[in-house]
Write a structure and sequence with these properties.
Layout: H1 35-43, H2 51-54, H3 71-77, H4 85-101, H5 103-114, E1 116-117, E2 141-148, H6 155-159, E3 168-176, E4 183-187, E5 193-196, E6 210-213, H7 216-219, H8 228-239, E7 245-249, H9 251-260, E8 264-268, E9 272-273, H10 274-277, E10 287-289, E11 292-296, H11 299-306, H12 316-337, H13 341-352, E12 355-357, H14 364-372, E13 382-386, E14 389-391, E15 398-400, H15 404-413, E16 460-465, H16 472-482, E17 486-492, E18 502-505, H17 510-517, E19 524-527, E20 533-537, H18 539-544, H19 549-554, H20 574-577, E21 581-582
Parallel strand pairs: 1-12, 2-7, 4-13, 16-17, 16-20, 18-19
Antiparallel strand pairs: 2-3, 3-4, 5-6, 7-12, 8-11, 9-10, 13-21, 14-15, 18-20
Helix pairs in contact: 4-5, 5-13, 9-13, 13-14
Length: 597
């Protein structure tokens, strides 16, 4: 089946999508060639570049006395003298401000001049609601990461070929949990059949939308810059999750980023040759990437993340696994070296030169601030999974599996990690003190002292919150740890209507459960199905800690859940959780799919 994955005329790699406009006309097809080809034709050359795009290839960094293919002299003779007006203005302003702000100002305005943003008017108006911050100001962030295979500008030299338009080689929805200590990236297969909503075209018209391959959204309109707003609209339609920010990096940006960090460690189960990178070569060719561990940057890094053929079954599924492994390795390297402005600035400079973002992320300070906000994520708590999928029977494309995909989206909305932890960022509630003139709440059981003997450390306790009052599971966990029990906050219980704290125990754990129960006077102790000891705190524990029924009622909705807080989602299927990659996993593990090739 190698070579069939979205490559045919009706597939997402070569087709911009079969969407139509509201007036019935077809969406414009990608034009042949590309900006690189047009530029070379205009210059009468095959590959010389100068000026901003030139660098090494176009003479001495684009000097006026360099080759005829570039430089300021060529720019003066160009038929488009106003092409760089905006950047000239930006740099002129930066030059004035540098005299005041110093070197820091120069860097800031340089990054700002690099960044492009797409039209806010192209974002759909019927969007999912924004996530609400809790009382501590904690709020999750959803970022759509898109890798574009545009051959425009200098990208054809890296990506191969001169096809116009752009496709989304990589799309990952990164959910940064409200605690900013956990994150998960969801890879969406580019040849998954999905519902694409109406999208705005470069000419200002809107498509009608319809069923198509996922990466047809990015191709809508046939522009070399792609259509990131259409992809964002499609992801929101697909998941019901509000996308806070969208970032698009093309070949040039990706190549420069990997060089800025001095390469990324990767691993391959077998050697890769030129014929694997370009099947049209019709021969094996020279060795490109050896088997085993290696450090790649620039073109080699691009070859690694775009590779499909010659390994596994040649599908996008295997490629997504390698992309997840690559991003894990990149994140681990940056974490090791430290997320500081010194580390981020060279990376930001490289990335922003080929970066397109949503209007809300279109400044250097916002980008750097977002990058620094990730510094507390432990690599084991940065996960990557692929949206639940299956091969279609009628063609070589993919369907997303329901209800499994729906459960995954619900898990993100509830800010639950894929292994069931509550990562909302809610802190344990401080004990409420009665206001002046108010009577104290009715007396409630208080915890009794428990001898903190050494034997308690061998008792493992999972703690759940059986109420709608935030922070109780964390408070109970701290109480158990103070008595030297090995306790873990497990999150929200399946029900929020526990009036009395429940202690459940597994086989042989009755004595340990009784010891735990001594911390929770009035608690019920019953045999359960789980191993070890489980504590589900109830309203009695809430009252004992100054959070009575009034607190719960104020934050509850008619459905019995906290206002603005989604219901606890159903557990994810093992087909999702078992295939998850942590950023600290072995880089040689789980990098391919299928046994072909």
């Amino acid at each position: 089946m190698s070579g069939q994955w979205g490559e045919g005329p009706a597939r997402g790699e070569d087709a911009p999508g079969a969407l139509t406009t509201e007036s019935g006309g077809a969406v414009p097809q990608p034009r042949t060639g590309g900006r690189a080809e047009a530029r070379r034709a205009a210059q009468g050359k095959g590959g010389g570049r100068g000026g901003k795009d030139g660098g090494k290839d176009g003479g001495k960094g684009g000097r006026p006395d360099g080759p005829a293919g570039g430089g300021r002299a060529a720019a003066r003779k160009s038929s488009k003298p106003k092409k760089n007006v905006k950047k000239i203005v930006a740099w002129s302003a930066a030059g004035v401000l540098v005299l005041i702000a110093g070197a820091g100002g120069a860097i800031y305005f340089k990054l700002n001049a690099n960044i492009k943003s797409f039209d806010a008017d192209a974002i759909a108006t019927d969007r999912p609601p924004e996530a609400q911050a809790d009382a501590d100001g904690n709020k999750p962030v959803n970022v759509l990461l898109i890798g574009s295979d545009s051959r425009g500008k200098n990208n054809a030299d890296l990506g191969g070929g001169e096809d116009g338009g752009a496709r989304s080689d990589t799309t990952i929805l990164l959910h940064v949990y409200a605690d900013h200590k956990h994150a998960v990236g969801i890879s969406i297969p580019r040849n998954a059949m999905v519902q694409i909503p109406p999208c705005k075209l470069p000419n200002g018209k809107w498509t009608k939308g319809g069923n198509d391959l996922f990466n047809a959204a990015f191709s809508t309109g046939g522009s070399d810059d792609g259509n990131p707003a259409c992809t964002q609209n499609t992801v929101e339609k697909l998941t019901g999750i509000r996308v806070d920010h969208t970032m698009v990096v093309d070949f040039n940006g990706f190549s420069a980023m990997t060089s800025a960090v001095n390469g990324v460690d990767v691993c391959l189960p077998k050697a890769i040759y030129e014929g694997d990178i370009n099947p049209n070569l019709k021969k094996k060719g020279d060795l490109v990437l050896p088997a085993g561990k290696q450090t790649v940057q620039g073109q080699k890094a691009l070859d690694y993340v775009r590779l499909r053929h010659g390994i596994g079954d040649g599908s996008d599924i295997g490629r997504m696994k390698r992309q997840q492994a690559f991003l894990s390795s990149l994140a681990s390297k940056m974490k090791k070296e430290g997320l500081s402005p010194t580390t981020l600035l060279p990376l930001a400079d490289a990335a922003t030169k080929s970066l397109t973002v949503d209007p809300g992320l279109s400044s250097a300070d916002k980008l750097l601030s977002f990058g620094l906000s990730l510094k507390n994520i432990d690599m084991h708590d940065l996960k990557f999974v692929t949206a639940p999928w299956r091969y279609r029977t009628q063609d070589a494309n993919i369907d997303l599996v329901q209800p499994d995909a729906g459960k995954l989206w619900a898990t993100l909305k509830a800010d639950q990690t894929i292994d069931g932890q509550n990562a909302t960022g809610q802190q344990p509630d401080a004990a409420a003190s009665p206001s002046a003139g108010a009577s104290a709440p009715a007396a409630a059981p208080t915890s009794a002292p428990v001898p903190a003997d050494a034997g308690n450390s061998t008792v493992k306790v999972a703690v759940y919150n059986g109420t709608i009052v935030n922070g109780l599971a964390g408070k109970a966990t701290d109480q158990l740890k103070a008595a030297k029990f090995t306790a873990t906050t497990a999150g929200q219980a399946a029900s929020t209507k526990y009036k009395t704290t429940m202690i459940e125990y597994g086989s042989g754990q009755k004595a340990n459960a009784d010891k735990v129960a001594a911390l929770f006077p009035g608690a019920s102790v019953e045999a359960g199905n789980s191993a070890g000891v489980t504590v589900i705190v109830g309203k009695d524990f809430a009252a004992a800690n100054g959070a009575g029924s009034a607190t719960g009622a104020a934050g509850a909705s008619a459905s019995g859940t906290a206002a603005g807080t989604p219901a606890t989602p159903a557990p994810l299927p093992t087909t999702v959780t078992n295939d998850a990659r942590s950023a600290d996993d072995d880089i040689c593990a789980n990098t391919t799919y299928g046994s072909g090739g």
